[in-house]
Amino acid sequence: MRDSRPRAIVRLTFANPVSLGYLALVASLPLLVSPWTEGQAFADFWFALATAPSSVVLLLPDVVTGFSAWASAYHYSALALSALINAFLLGLAHRSLRRNPARQGHTA
């Protein structure tokens, strides 16, 4: 029986080694970068750089909001969501690369 759609999304995001490695790297990035950075802004830069493809799109409204508690909450929520989106896309790529070509029908 095939997985349901929400279960398949969760499995692609969290249940393969590529996505888990990416999420572990993103989660440990503040600990890895903090000894070499002086301020929080530069550590946030590395966090945004690690989640780059989708964080660029999600952080566009963050430029207008300014400095407030709501802006900080949106900023970190957008970075976490972009990490999950990237992990899902890595899971899709991992599944498509691991798929057996013999099972796919050849049309000629």
TrEMBL record:
State the UniProt keywords alphabetically. Membrane, Transmembrane, Transmembrane helix
Q: This protein's superkingdom?
A: Bacteria
Keyword Membrane, does the record have it?
yes
Q: Does the keyword Membrane apply?
A: yes
Listed transmembrane segments: 12-33, 73-93
Classification via InterPro entries: DUF7942 (IPR057702)
Which Pfam families does this chain map to? DUF7942
Q: What is this protein called?
A: Uncharacterized protein
Q: Which organism is it from?
A: Streptomyces venezuelae (strain ATCC 10712 / CBS 650.69 / DSM 40230 / JCM 4526 / NBRC 13096 / PD 04745)
